[in-house]
Specification:
The protein is of the alpha/beta class. It has a single domain, classed as 3-Layer(aba) Sandwich (Rossmann fold). The protein is 45% helix and 13% strand. It has a 6-stranded parallel sheet, sandwiched between helices. Strand 1, helix 1 and strand 2 form a beta-alpha-beta unit. The longest helix has 17 residues. The radius of gyration is 17 Å and the shape is globular. It starts with a strand and ends with a helix.
Length: 231
């Protein structure tokens, strides 16, 4: 059976990918790992795209996956692209959804303002409770702080420097109502890649919980079918 790895986004975890997993698992073997430090896993390591990419590399090797397709939401798509820069021959294709490609100190500063645990606890207590349930009562604030640190690092050191080396098929998806990643930004990413396609998902803002699941899964399943038929 063919394999699909589904990667979650920043401050997320594998449980958020369950709805997508349920649909894809009818035809594929699905893998939904959580990045280190997420979903209740403890770590002293800083959050870095390079570290998550190394974790993805180990996961593929340890599970002996032969050219899986990677579906990455938000940060997960960024990690998949980073991995593919050096290991493009080890995967069959990538689907990115709501992945922020453009980073600068100014962009990082804007994004990190939304990750203040005290502000979230005070103004959006339901969200704070959901994060505590996902990462642990004593860990969710650390996840936010480490994510903010990672974003600042991205603002100064964007590691996506060799996208022209990614010759496998890549499907760049963006929701038409995403207020974190623009359609233009995603289109620019698509134009940078040598073998990419572009798709706007209707009625879809940034949060994965509000994804237009029917449209997205139909598009990805067709992409997966086309990708595997080319191998």
């Amino acid at each position: 059976m063919k394999h699909i790895i589904i990667l979650h986004g920043a401050i997320g975890a594998a449980d958020q990918m369950q709805a997508i997993k349920n649909i894809f698992s009818k035809e594929y073997q699905i893998h939904t790992p959580s990045f280190y430090g997420h979903g209740g896993t403890a770590t002293q390591e800083p959050f870095r795209v390079e570290g998550f990419s190394k974790q993805l590399e180990s996961y593929i090797e340890d599970n002996q996956l032969h050219k899986p397709l990677i579906v990455g939401y938000s940060m997960g798509g960024f990690v998949a692209l980073h991995y593919a820069q050096k290991h493009t021959n080890k995967i069959s294709g990538i689907v990115t959804l709501a992945t922020k490609f453009e980073w600068s100190p100014e962009i990082a500063s804007k994004e990190t303002k939304m990750l203040d645990p005290k502000v979230i606890q005070e103004k959006v207590p339901a969200f704070a409770s959901a994060l505590a349930k996902r990462h642990g009562e004593d860990s969710w604030a650390h996840v936010l702080n480490k994510t903010a640190d990672m974003m600042r690092h991205l603002g100064n050191n964007n590691p996506l420097t060799s996208l022209e080396n990614i010759c496998i098929p890549v499907l760049c998806c963006i929701g038409d109502r995403d207020n974190m990643v623009s359609v233009e930004e995603t289109h620019n990413l698509y134009k940078t890649l040598p073998n990419a396609s572009f798709c706007v998902i209707p009625n879809t803002p940034h949060p994965i919980e509000k994804l237009n699941l029917d449209v997205f899964t139909a598009v990805v399943l067709q992409f997966a079918l086309n990708t595997h038929s080319q191998r």
